[in-house]
Amino acid sequence: MTAIKTTCAYCGVGCGIRATVTGDRQVRIEGDPDHPANRGKLCSKGTHLGETVGLEGRLLTPMIGKRRASWDKALDLVAKRFRDTIAQHGPDSVAFYVSGQLLTEDYYLANKLMKGFIGSANIDTNSRLCMSSAVAGHTRAFGEDIVPATYEDIDAADLIVLVGSNTAWCHPIIYQRIRARCDAGAKLVVIDPRRTETAEQADLHLALRPGSDVALMNGALAWARAAGVVDADFLTASVTTPEDFWTTLDEGSDLWSVAKTCDVAPADLRRFYELFAATPRTVTLFSQGINQSTTGTDQVNAILNLHLATGRIGKPGAAPFSITGQPNAMGGREVGGLASTLAAHMDFAPENRARVQRFWAAPTIAPKPGLKAVDLFRELGQGRIKALWIMATNPAVSMPDAGAVREALAACPFVVVSDVIAETDSSAHAHVRLPAAAWGEKDGTVTNSDRTISRQRALFPPPGDAKPDWWIIKEVGRRMGWKTAFAYDRPAEIWREHCRLSHYENDGSRLFALPGQSSAGNADYDAMQPFRWGGTPFADGHFPTADGRARLVTVTQKPLPAPLRDWPLTLNTGRYRDHWHTMTRTGLAPKLARHREEPLVEVHPDDATRLNLTDGGLARVGTPQGTSLYRVSVSTGQRPGELFVPIHWTDRTATGGRTGLLPRPLTDPYSGQPGFKRTPASIAAVATR
Ligand code: SF4
Fold first, then answer.
1. pTM beyond cutoff 0.95
2. Which residues form the 4Fe-4S Mo/W bis-MGD-type domain (predicted)?
3. Shortest-distance atom of ligand 1 to CA 44
């Protein structure tokens, strides 16, 4: 039995796995000691992947309505309905909603079909909900969506700052790396409204008021400037500073004002500011607590400003580091699989549109950015999107205001869902369901948080009629009339084309480029070892902007709204350690269910006493969007006035805990990322224990 090297199906850490097939759909999973992301370690989710490869709940044949259908019939129907809709209502009347679970080759083809052949940019992804504020922030500051850090920077840092990230639960292998560095003497500061497991182990925890991150980061920069650690030479040589930058920054950025805005003890804030000012080798990691906000892009830029102004970028152990949620969120960014990007880190500038159209030999090219996720589902609800293809994701649970998303799906004239799961909350509304190959059955590549590209390799043949996503997409493209442009026999061909586009007519102004891979043979592709693109970005002080300079972005703390009379509390949402998204995979692993058996609403003891809530009792959480039932957990880890609930449970997994029904569909103006962290809410006891 030979071990096959592949990559974990879950998070953006991108851990390497050695998988040994031991029987009929039986596999032994071990960490790959040679993979640079994890060096042989795995967290609980990765360790139990072998429990999730059975056929329970799988979709094994194409379905038209409730009837089984042949691939020919199902694909012909999908192609015809999309073609007819476009002919009648134009290219912007159709949309794809895809996923960071797709492999890069799948993502590339979906993007090519929509933007180059259908001629619309209405392809967005569930990564919009995860890291699009980081993309917008990077682009504003650096000119291109570049993550400047690597995991080795963690190993070299003397101070590690985690902002809005429960890393111990959500990126456990990165957290193990952080712990190892702390054991060697580095300090750990956690900035998070909740006292999470990560915060428990920090040298300093700042439990700031939700949404006050810009004030806190601007205060850190004002302090650093007063302490003389702004890098004037770097700013002069490599960074454009807006005229109003420092005067705006100084307003309200003194220690006492920031402490009041953030509701943290001045002494704790001072400790962080002094530590930051004194530690050149600082890595600041941030995740959903920063990104999933209606001010997410400004929050990202406040962090990037801090690192740019102090010259803590492009050097070992010194960088801002956005960590991605999904296994291939980064690969999706590379192919341009967001409605707001065109392809290969290019935007919709006329020269880019012409360049990509030439490369694809496409009949048309999307003229402008398309609908971002929340807008896409809003337009669906208003009847302007008339045909939608959902690939490998479950928006009826994961989108904010999920109740309205369900109504929109139910009203849409034609919905296609390609997924490995027979029935999801979203596919319940599908006219056609297409059986996709699952993790362990398909070949391709993924890119993790630190730009390392790894292979996913098939362990088993796809069961029943299941097919890889790239195959399904190319068959629809061919049946829509573009036979030559979608004539692929294997993912390696798509990979080579993607790599060619990454450096096609690139004059060096884009950092993302994979020239060495364009000529990789099939055997090279099969044998591909993990590799990172981009080297150490910005080490030479050059940035991919027109003038080669980075940009400080003037950002100010927005006023934080007063509590509403009917919804006086603030609802935060997030993940549990052993579950993933809407549990379609982790729900199959019994051992993973033991960590948290049901969805809990965490409540501060003062609120519990005031509202007659008891630990273990039941309570109904309400927001302007809807209500859902949870078991109560009274916890001093919560700030008074704030609630926390997990995102994973669905109609199909529980009668309560349907968190998707609760957040408002409000988004960041730059990134379009919805805010999941600060929803006005109420809570009422249903039963006490
Ligand atoms: Fe998989 Fe993420 Fe765990 Fe690594 S840290 S084993 S990628 S879930």
1. yes
2. 1-57
3. 3
